[in-house]
């Protein structure tokens, strides 16, 4: 706020692309080509961004500006994108349940639109591999300072058969620091068994009066694997950016800009000079 009063936070730019485009690119890089976006009121700009802009394309084509023409066509050609409106904000669990008819009986990934993962870390691809090997559902876990766990869903874990894979035995949504089962939090990447839909239908509103995906996963963790139960965690030690937080958003823009081939060297030079001038 106040930038997101009329603009979805997923559309805030990270250098020259909205955050949501990086998320779609991550899904495509992991081999997913069918994307369903759960949107809501005042989020029409997301649909417009991933649509064709014929007038703008013609104007750039007439100017011979092939570079910018390619950049605006890119988002419309990333994947087959569909949209469903959530209607009213009843929580992440409810948003996931809105995808039931589209997903059917297939396993699927959930990527939160304000959580960015560094492309070189291949987190989603690794999670899909874990799902294929062990079945059930898979969550991404990241270790944080114990004082931070109350901001997130938190997992109780036991050692798995691989160094970066654990068994999730319990999950708690935003526990008090002294009640958290660990300091491994759930970040915005999930690969879910379709059994989650039946569980979500029976999951009552939890923290904040919303249907929490964490509560449904807690149920899945205790279910028979033959019925789609079981939850594994991938221990993620790469780079994650929370664009819903003001400071993290600023850090994200700066880091992504410094890594750009066309901007990085000049921007980093200016940044060093700027920092040196500060008191």
UniProtKB/TrEMBL annotation:
Q: Which UniProt keywords apply?
A: Nucleotidyltransferase, Transferase
Q: Where is the Nucleotidyl transferase domain?
A: 1-250
EC number assigned by the record: 2.7.7.9
Mind telling me which InterPro entries this protein's record contains?
A: GalU_uridylyltTrfase_bac/arc, NTP_transferase_dom, Nucleotide-diphossugar_trans
Which ranges form a coiled coil?
none
Domain of life of the organism encoding this protein: Bacteria
Q: Which Pfam families does this chain map to?
A: NTP_transferase (PF00483)
Q: Which GO terms describe its molecular function?
A: nucleotidyltransferase activity
This chain's protein is named UTP--glucose-1-phosphate uridylyltransferase
User: Where does this protein come from, organism-wise?
Assistant: Actinocorallia longicatena
Q: What is the lineage of its organism?
A: Bacteria, Bacillati, Actinomycetota, Actinomycetes, Streptosporangiales
- The protein's gene is named galU_1
